[in-house]
Amino acid sequence: MVAFTHLAIALSTVAGSLAAPAADPYVDAPDFELNGDRLMRRQDYNQDYKTSGNVNFSPTNNGYSVSFSGAGDFVVGKGWRTGTTRNITFDGSTTASAGTVLVSVYGWTTNPLIEYYVQEYTSNGAGSAQGQKLGTVTCDGSVYDIWKHQQVNQPSIQGTATFWQYISNRQSKRPGSGTVTTKCHFDAWNALGLNLGSHNYQTLSTEGWGNAGGNSKYTISGS
């Protein structure tokens, strides 16, 4: 993988940048809002971090699109200000023409401080899966490799800190549509001693580095 240490710093820096979401008049609203006589689920967190290159991110009410070229590091996506054991359904596609590109359910917890990924698609190698492989889990009919990796004195949502990354990396990559039952992954991690804490934000994200080029477009819902 290309410059994982640099990537990890950039991804962790995302947390500091993204703890305050992009401007959104509904950002402090709950996950549900009343629309006429129907109670509708609404995404309420825009994830938007970029360094070098061209990254054109367009969030929508129920998803996002992004096109990118020559990208050094970026993470963009859509989700919730507070994570939980959601079933996250996404519908769309990703294409990658250069660099490394990932599509993941991505989030953080505190007490303990954890950065986690459920990687649905990686264009080049194992994406952010590095460190120690602990086993596998079958979720939603697919097999995922489980990894943990320690970040030492790196930026996080709580400033510079030492913390673990928990990663489920799907063996059969899917850049298109599907559902991630997060409880399946969280339970598998817990059985291996990988405990999560209190949830911070939780998103479906597209991520790239190493002069990444390509595009993504998704609609997202949770239950």
UniProtKB/TrEMBL annotation:
GO molecular function, one term: endo-1,4-beta-xylanase activity
Pathway terms, separated by semicolons: Glycan degradation; xylan degradation
Active site location: E115, E207
A Pfam family this chain is assigned to: Glyco_hydro_11
Keywords, ordered alphabetically: Carbohydrate metabolism, Glycosidase, Hydrolase, Polysaccharide degradation, Signal, Xylan degradation
Gene Ontology BP annotations: xylan catabolic process
Enzyme Commission number: 3.2.1.8
InterPro entries: ConA-like_dom_sf (IPR013320), GH11/12 (IPR013319), GH11_dom (IPR033123), Glyco_hydro_11 (IPR001137)
Top EC group: hydrolase
Protein's UniProt keywords contain Zinc: no
Catalytic reactions on record: Endohydrolysis of (1->4)-beta-D-xylosidic linkages in xylans
PANTHER family: ENDO-1,4-BETA-XYLANASE (PTHR46828:SF4), ENDO-1,4-BETA-XYLANASE A-RELATED (PTHR46828)
Family indicated by similarity: Belongs to the glycosyl hydrolase 11 (cellulase G) family.
Annotated protein name in UniProt: endo-1,4-beta-xylanase
Organism: uncultured eukaryote
Gene designation per UniProt: GH11
